[in-house]
Amino acid sequence: MTSNTVTRIVVSLVCLYMGISFVSAMPFELDREAMIKFTPDWEGERFPNGRPKVSDSIIERMKLVDIEAAWVVLKNEGYEYQFEDGWKHVHPGETLCGRAMTAMYMPLRKDVNEVIGAQAEVDGHVGGQVTWPIDILQQGDVYVADVYNNQNDGGPIIGASLGTTIFANSGNGVLFNGVARDLEQLEKIEGFNGFVRGWNPSFYWASMITGINVPVNVGGVTVMPGDVILGKRSGIIVIPAHLAGKVVKTAELIRLRDKFGFERLKAGIYTAGQIDDRWTDEIEKDFSQWLNNHIDELSVPREQIQELLKERTW
Questions:
Q1: What pLDDT does 9 receive?
Q2: Rounded to two decimals, what is the model's pTM?
Q3: In angstroms, rounded to a whole number, what is the distance separating the alpha carbons of residues 118 and 199?
Q4: CB 3.0 to 4.6 Å from 31: which of 21, 46, 278, 293, for a disulfide?
Q5: Are 171 and 164 in contact (CB under 8 A)?
Q6: In the structure, what pLDDT confidence band is assigned to residue 19 with cuts at 50, 70 and 90?
Q7: Residues of the chain with CATH 3.50.30.40
Q8: Dihedral (C-alpha) 217, 4, 9, 136: value to the nearest 10 degrees?
């Protein structure tokens, strides 16, 4: 039994424990109460189903965050398994960032799939299973699907048509622990980015959908609905909703300090040893003055710099 199979079994058992609703077409789906229960540290706005709704402003600022800066914050908070590499990109070099809307797929099993299909008719689902998650995407969402890293024929859960619909509904892209098709056509969708395991020219037939807005895995990382997905050239990092603000603020401070340090080093004002070591009060005062003098020229929003200055004692 592979580690991925074990993970999926554990996720399924957790879903059962969570108090999953069995009245929908999917065997596993978190209801609002369970969603809130298992995202207890999130204190902000939520979607009607309980999924954390990290603000648009945090999402926009997150796009400038380095993977390394986010990783340090999460590591210090006790989140050690949040990064995964080895992805193929629709638009290499472009950033993927947004709130996770998750779906779980499993290898096709005839009897279970027939039950899912019958219940889907009762629930009023239209179209094939692969369209159901896409139908409920919200603007700013990243569609995250665990397709158990199936890279064989019958594995792709989207191509050009569904990719177009995903972008229309979310204004964003996808993160798939599996494959997609129609790369050349997906590349033509400006603003759409996808992080997938590979490409396959076949179409969907080998899997069945077993959960929407449930915990899923994308390799070595567990993704909860509402987590912030940040994808860049080096890989993806999954940021719990309640830590998104802290990641952004910490990364912005690091970025400002780095820019100040580089400028002062180039000007010969300080030595590398002074900048790399713990800053003296003199350097901290100089940094505060530099922030004031350049407040409208920096990549961090003016109001955030003003907030930072209020918190500083130099």
A1: 43
A2: 0.88
A3: 31
A4: 21
A5: no
A6: very low
A7: 3-53+85-239
A8: 30
Contacts of 227 (CB under 8 A, 6+ apart): 52, 99, 100, 238, 239, 240, 241
What pLDDT, on the 0 to 100 scale, is given for residue 16?
A: 43
Residues of the chain with pLDDT > 90, as a percent, come to 84
Q: Residue 147 half-sphere exposure, CB side, CA atoms within 13 Å?
A: 29
Q: What is the pLDDT of residues 31-69, one digit of tens each?
A: 999 999 999 999 999 999 999 999 999 999 999 999 999
Contact present, 213 and 49 (Cβ < 8 Å): yes
- Which parts of 61-205 are beta strand (E)? 83-84, 88-89, 96-107, 141-150, 174-180, 194-196, 198-199
- CATH 3.30.43.10 at 3-53+85-239, yes or no: no
Q: Which of 12, 33, 195 is nearest to 100 (CA)?
A: 195
Q: What is the pLDDT of residue 21?
A: 44
Residue given tokens 């999130």 in the structure block? 42
